[in-house]
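User: structure tokens for this one?
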Amino acid sequence: MDKKINKIKEEIKCFSIKTYHDSETFRIKFLGKKKGIITIFLKELKKVSIHKRKIYGKIINELKKEVQKKISIFLSQNEIINEKIQKYDPTIPGKSIEIGSFHPISILKNRMIDIFMKIGFTYVDGREIEDDWHNFTALNIPIDHPSRDMQDTFFLYKDPDILLRTHTSSVQIRYMKKHRPPFRVLSIGKVYRNETISSHSNFMFHQAEGFYIDKKVSFSDLKQVIHYLMTSLFGKAKIRFRPSYFPFTEPSAEVDLYCNSGWVEIMGCGMIDPKVLKNVDIDSETYSGFAFGIGIERLSLIIYNIKDIRMFFDNDVRFLKQFTSEF
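Assistant:
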């Protein structure tokens, strides 16, 4: 008899109730009126002595309570779940998720990469912390050259040879040192200058640098690429080239774009100076090339009709939301 009771206890303990069907199966198995294990066990008590009947009767009542307790725990837990389900109203509008937006600078950067990749240019990134040689000297700007004054520079205090790059042309030098012509390369990134002359200026802006080196590259090729870029960005674009001076290109030119307000200077360009090619071990008798640099902020001001360049750096959500549907 004792063995049988222990077996029933173990079965009650091990029975797993996960559904209402399990709960009903469990109840019938132990408390069913005809074939319930505890019901049958109660009927068998008639065969034992009165003294033992009282002892076993008490044990059986405790087993019944265990079965009922296990069932009630399951039902109460599911009532809580059902109550939560009933309280949920599927007709209530959900929480809306705001759609993010690209910054206008990022939009234009992606557009330019797409434009130049269509004509065989490769996009590369460059380091923002440079050394003097890659940023100035290799580009035909020695330490005493007056053009350095045009790029008021952030040098690092502990090492005056290390600086924040003043233009993306340093990418040109690093790329040409590691690769042999021909190549067409575009690089876009932040450049740093301490420009305090204008209240509208910032210490940092984004610049795109493009260069192409191959045999028999001419100024005509440069003009075609610039025209392709301007028409891709503005549609029918009226541009002009003005002679200018840059120490790393010869001849050099400024490119102007005609807008509603008149002619606007948009970028600088030119044929890469033979001295620059020599500094990166490229034979200037065999190869020639062109380079151009353009400020992304300046382009964005024109394309999006933005009046103040400082808006790019204010992080005003109202300003940024205007570009949600772009790109």
